[in-house]
Amino acid sequence: PPQVSFTLELEFSCSVLLDRAEVTLQATSDSTEATPQDNVVKLSVPIRYEPNLFLSSNTNLHRYEVHPLGTFTRSSGPEFTTTVKVQNLGCYPIQNVTLHMALPALGHRQATILSVTRVLAENATCVLQPPDEGPQVVPVPPEDLLHTDR
């Protein structure tokens, strides 16, 4: 029997969110057919909307002085304030968004170079995991700049 293939391309409005798209297809003919009941098919497919997330970050300190090896003190250095923002630029709501951040916390000889003092969150729930509970922190390799002119 002859067959016809075609593609349907549907556009959806931002003002109406649908869970499913339902399409009814019906083939008709001028000829007399013995089984006309199989000329109609109803299709129902779930709709998944593509998110449009935008991730940005900003910090108040863009440089930090590193002292020679062995001369660092145990006192805390300047405070970094880093702001991370996740925005939904699309017109569809998004649920269950999870953001994982790994912070470089150890330097030469396992020296702590960064510690989180406080976390302020808006419209989010933040969970802070110490290095022993989260993924293994890879120490930053030391750089020997003593023999470098520039």
Automatic annotation (TrEMBL):
Superkingdom of the organism of origin: Eukaryota
GO biological processes: cell adhesion mediated by integrin; cell-cell adhesion; cell-matrix adhesion; integrin-mediated signaling pathway
Signal peptide: none
GO CC list: external side of plasma membrane; integrin complex
Gene Ontology terms for molecular function: integrin binding
Protein name: ITA10 protein
Name of the gene: Itga10_1
